[in-house]
Amino acid sequence: MEKAEAKRVLERAREMWEAEEWLRSAELYEQVLAHYPDEEPSAVWWYDAALAYKFLRDWPKAWALGREAAARSPRGEQDPAFWNLGVAATIQRDWATARDAWEGFGISVPAGEGEINGAFGPACVRLDTGGEREVVWIQRLCPTRGRVMNVPATQGRRFGEIVVHDGEPTGERTYNGQSVPVFDELLIFEASPLPTLRTTVNAADASDVDALVASFFARDFGAEPASSFHMICACCSEGRVDWDESGTPTHGGSQTVWLAAPEAEARQLLDAWAEGGERSWSGLELSA
């Protein structure tokens, strides 16, 4: 490919990029890169092609081209080529490459080999399953993975599943004075074995409901009373939400509680809780 032709192909690749024709754009970049992999601007071409495959959720291609982009990018300067490679390598379970990518970006990860399971603090993830969108809290295990710490109301989703999220925040939540980002989910990395159950509880006051939630979390299970959910519009969800002010407080009375636990253990915990005062429960069933 002559340089004049390469220039025309690059212009077309950028046009396709602006039109969000990701596959065609990436293919055109690859045509040029096959002949000019190490020109001065080639790092940008590798990056754009890898990013296009990321948008397409073609993780093997995002990983392969991302490695080329990162190899031509400065280390330790938070270059996005390393971030995108870290995401793609994580999804491919290429832990050696993922570890090197995070270090290249400028993030320290726990020493060792294999899967990264660190303590990267809390964050929120916006689940997206066929149009249903729900923001849940996670405990981050690495820069791009986190364990879901709520019992989701969205059908088919579970407490304890591990999700991969994108790196650009699309919202903010504050709780007890701490501000955390909201990331968009990319995919479920590891399913949770815990089923989602639903029951109706009657409690004298909020402290009784809090005691029920605490008893489940003490066993590494989950519990989510209906009074802890609140609905907000998409625009507000992508902005800053103060959980202390906007969150609906837990209350007593009768309400639905979603539980994440094996049914037998859930019944035992509910029975033990009901013995603690003016408390009762009924109608335990799998959540649809």
Walk me through the structure.
The protein is α+β, with helices and mostly antiparallel strands and 288 residues long. The protein has three domains: 3-105, Tetratricopeptide repeat domain (Serine Threonine Protein Phosphatase 5, Tetratricopeptide repeat), CATH 1.25.40; 122-190, no CATH class; 196-286, 2-Layer Sandwich (Alpha-Beta Plaits). It has ten helices and eleven strands. The protein has helices at residues 3-18, 22-33, 42-55, 59-71, 80-91, 95-105, 206-217, 234-237, 243-246, 263-274; strands spanning 122-129, 132-140, 145-148, 162-165, 172-175, 178-190, 196-203, 222-225, 240-242, 253-260, 279-286. The model is unreliable at 245-249 (pLDDT under 50).
